[in-house]
Design a protein that fits this description.
The protein is α/β, with parallel strands linked by helices and 206 residues long. It contains eight helices and eight strands; from the N terminus they run E-H-E-H-E-H-E-H-E-H-E-H-H-E-E-H.
């Protein structure tokens, strides 16, 4: 009997944090940043937040950077916790979530509390799940992962057991390959004060 081949797979949370930070910093408009994860997710979420915060600081951001952990179950509990935090954040703020499902929940809760997405609160997910991203009340901008590349790498390992034997325990890494931009974060932000005011008036009448 051919022995089973175990091929560990890891999401590169550190690189995702760097990618998200650079993407949001390009917009040059956020006064505060927040990462949102759920309880029971192990060591990866802190790694994501640490990389995200480090990149923001390294590129000169001096404002508030926070991390919150939502309860793993209970929409009402999550909503209460998010309301507490979002109500105290300096705006505009940018929220990076652990995955697209949590991003969808953040958008829904923010809209329910009367916050404008993305003008007051911009939300960036991870995973680029098109069903979730397109089904959100405000279509989700999301960090895209190299899932096809990951599948190819795993298949090569499976078809080459000698290679797997030479590299025991080496994980196949799923890295970010960019950002799929939709409506929950908009890259366009006029730097000129008068142009920005005109755009705001056209969009919101204020």
């Amino acid at each position: 009997m051919t022995p089973a081949i175990t091929i560990p797979c890891e999401i590169d949370r550190r690189s995702i944090g760097h990618t998200a930070a650079h993407y949001l910093l390009e917009q040059d408009r956020f006064a505060t940043f927040l990462t949102v994860t759920e309880a029971g997710c192990g060591k990866n979420p802190p790694t994501l937040h640490a990389a995200f915060a480090k990149t923001l600081r390294k590129n000169g951001f001096v404002g508030t950077i926070r991390r919150i952990v939502l309860p793993g179950i209970g929409l009402s509990s999550k909503n209460r916790r998010l309301r507490e935090v979002l109500s105290t954040l300096e705006r505009p703020g940018a929220v990076l979530t652990q995955n697209d499902r949590i991003a969808l929940e953040v958008v829904a809760f923010a809209l329910k509390d009367g916050l404008r997405v993305p003008d007051e609160i911009a939300v960036l997910g991870i995973g680029d799940n098109q069903t979730i991203c397109d089904g959100s009340p405000v279509k989700l901008t999301s960090v895209k992962l190299a899932c096809e590349r990951l599948g190819h790498a795993m298949l090569c390992r499976m078809l080459d057991p000698d290679n797997a034997a030479v590299l025991p325990g080496h994980a196949v890494i799923c890295a970010p390959i960019g950002v799929s931009e939709r409506d929950s974060v908009r890259r366009i932000h006029p730097r000129d004060h008068y142009v920005s005011a005109a755009v705001s008036f056209i969009q919101h009448g204020e």
